[in-house]
Amino acid sequence: MKFAFSTLGVPGLPLPEVLALATAHGYHGVELRAHPEEPVHPGLGPAARSDVAAEFKATGVEVLGVAGYARVAAPGADAPVIDEMRGLLQLAHDIGASYVRVLPGADPSLPAAESDAIAARRLGTVAEDAAALGVRILLETHDSHRTGAAAIRVLGPVGHRMVGALWDVMHTWLGGEQPAETYAALAPHLGYVQVKDIASADDTTPLPLGAGVLPLSDCVEVLSRHGWDGWLCWEYEKRWYESAAPLPDLLTAGREHLTRLLTESA
Questions:
Q1: Verdict on whether the full-model pTM lies above 0.90
Q2: In CA terms, which of 9, 141, 222, 264 is 20 to 30 Å from 15?
Q3: For 107-146, what is each residue's pLDDT tens digit?
Q4: Which of 5, 16, 14 is nearest to 58 (CA)?
Q5: Which residues are registered as beta bridge partners of 99?
Q6: Is residue 181 a contact partner of residue 206, using CB atoms and an 8 Å limit?
């Protein structure tokens, strides 16, 4: 497995400094939070996108994914959501990213089947765009669809190889799903895995990997047992928790913890 970290953990940090952190601390890739307050977002022009791709290539660090905020199950017209996804896919293609992250965002007052159908329809619409660009679009286990069982209700009907799942281990745990159950649901669709740690269900302030309650060892064990060799991406939510310790100080220990879990699972 290869290791990455999300720029959610280093809000607003210039890209050269992000890449320097990845290189210094032994990470193979970076997940870029695609938001206007960050250096890389869909509003970048062609020259800036070329510069981003060149900076990654020069360092040998991979652009794992573009973490977008399109909410594919949200009520309302399809066109704005589809346009947002297409913009994210184009950005990912232009900078050399393999994946685009989208969120569910369903209205809890609507019947689940209705929200599932909305999400599947929109993802199905952009599936061929994703294929043409060579970028896979991933529905994260999050908010209204936080478990693998919920995500598969959307991904099953889409049935396209370029539309998959991003397993966020915190949300599946909060949803009461065991790692083996999540893997069984998502395995045919799994793009990559976001790891993190927290103190409790009531306190989701980010902690160093291994310092909290999330079943990281069980997650790595089930992935290893099934021969999965994709990406583990540390999503440290510093942007939402200003009091959390700075991520750069934790990166080496985090990589060492993941390496230890891989060794133990082997």
A1: yes
A2: 141
A3: 999 999 999 999 999 999 999 999 999 999 999 999 999 9
A4: 16
A5: 65, 136
A6: no
